[in-house]
Amino acid sequence: MKAYIFPGQGAQFSGMGKELYENEIAKELFEKANEIIGFRISDIMFSGTDEELKETKVTQPAIFLHSVILAKTLGADFQPDMVAGHSLGEFSALVAANALSFEDGLRLVIARANAMQKACELQPSTMAAILGLADEVVEKICEEIDEVVVAANYNCPGQIVISGSIEGVDIACQKLTEAGAKRALKLNVGGAFHSPLMEPARVELQEAIENVTVLSPVCPIYQNVDPVPNTDPAKIKANLITQLTGAVKWTQTLERMIADGASEFVEVGPGNVLQGLVKKVNRAFPTSSATITAKV
């Protein structure tokens, strides 16, 4: 069974998606996106600087567009048995699997980016990568701290990202290092994603998600907050709403996909970070990057 996985924020790079533009389907979708967004995001993706790509209004839509347009241009080659996306990538996965329209998916991603930016501005907050500790140890230490700090991304065994207030993350990093973490590295991010501090963003995005049409995807999707096979539109919506304040259970997602019969993983979008995480969960499974085999 073929599992398609879609990357999240941080996978962007200058020149992303440029090779797709020669494809007629891709060109049409990029132009439609430029119209919806109100500026030529395709120009920034193809030839913008790293700084321009880091702008909130650009980063999330750019990664979404690269992933979704690549999936759409694969045509008959795109035959997923299961899909999943890391954080932002969940929206890409839903559009690729025909649960969301391209236009609705893009509008939700724009709304998500704006809502997250506002939440970041309300309270200074951050995230940190913790390497070399068991999940339970990280969870227990975070729970004991009298500040907002939680396990936010379960990326692979021995790699968790924590998220919370600046003070909470600083205290946690110190305590986790004392507990034996190989590294406790603060990340260069704008805020505490996938933590309770994203509650204002969750409330803002909830209305947009509730007002959008979600159909049953062409195959099961394994969502970040509830990594089990799901095709129920109501459940998909509920999980999307919870995602901003809930943890990204990526390790659990990959383990469940493997248990359910995944035999290979194809990453759709910029970069190959997710393929690396698959190998850290189980080296036995082949991974690859999706590529267009022919121009249309």
From TrEMBL:
Pfam hit, one: Acyl_transf_1
EC number: 2.3.1.39
TM helices/strands, residue ranges: none
Enzyme class: transferase
A GO term, aspect molecular function: [acyl-carrier-protein] S-malonyltransferase activity
Superkingdom of the organism of origin: Bacteria
UniProt keyword list: Acyltransferase, Transferase
Catalyzed reactions: holo-[ACP] + malonyl-CoA = malonyl-[ACP] + CoA
Stored InterPro entries: Ac_transferase_dom_sf, Acyl_transferase_dom, Acyl_Trfase/lysoPLipase, Mal-CoA-ACP_Trans/PKS_FabD, Malonyl_CoA-ACP_transAc, Malonyl_CoA-ACP_transAc_FabD, Malonyl_transacylase_ACP-bd
Residue stretches making up the Malonyl-CoA:ACP transacylase (MAT) domain: 5-292
Family: Belongs to the fabD family.
Protein name (database record): Malonyl CoA-acyl carrier protein transacylase
Organism: Pedobacter gandavensis
Gene: fabD
